[in-house]
Write a structure and sequence with these properties.
The protein is α/β, with parallel strands linked by helices. The protein has one domain: Response regulator (Rossmann fold, 3-Layer(aba) Sandwich), CATH 3.40.50.2300. 34% of the residues lie in helices and 21% in strands. The strands form 2 sheets. Strands 2-1-3-6-7 form a 5-stranded parallel beta sheet, with helices on both faces. A two-stranded antiparallel sheet has the order 4-5. β1, α1 (21-33) and β2 (37-42) form a beta-alpha-beta unit. α1 crosses α4 (112-123) and α2 packs parallel to α3.
Length: 131
């Protein structure tokens, strides 16, 4: 991960919501190597909602399926606060709620550098070019 030295994630508070310990741990470690301040990882919807109500993530990585819950209420809370996020999921795009089909998605198993680049793109979206 160190080859991406000029990371826009340096000092950025990144919330990770993932119920698979190994995926969450690997992703957290990789993002920390890039200078991100990782919040979590959090494995349950309720814990994530509580954390978001008390802290201010700048961006988030969300697994859609968290055991018996889906992450959509958290996605709603993040959108209401203007916090961008991406999905890291095994779900295909056709299974994702229509309301969230436009959200960038990393297919599991995720590659940390791909996640980092998607996060960076969400933080600094390119302006639309005028014709």
């Amino acid at each position: 991960m160190t080859e991406w030295a000029d990371t826009p994630l340096r000092g950025c508070r990144v919330l990770i919501v993932e119920d698979d310990y190994f995926i969450a741990s690997d992703l957290a470690e990789a993002l920390q190597e890039l200078g991100a301040i990782v919040l979590g990882p959090i494995s349950s919807l309720n814990d994530a909602l509580q954390l978001v109500s008390k802290s201010e993530p700048r961006i988030a990585v969300l697994d859609i399926n968290l055991g018996q819950d889906q992450v959509y209420p958290l996605a709603d809370a993040l959108q209401a606060r203007g916090v961008p996020f991406i999905f890291a999921t095994g779900y295909s795009g056709s299974v994702i709620s229509d309301h969230y089909r436009h959200i960038p998605r990393c297919q599991k198993p995720v590659q940390a550098l791909v996640v980092a680049k998607l996060l960076a793109r969400q933080l600094n979206p390119r302006p639309m070019q005028r014709s």
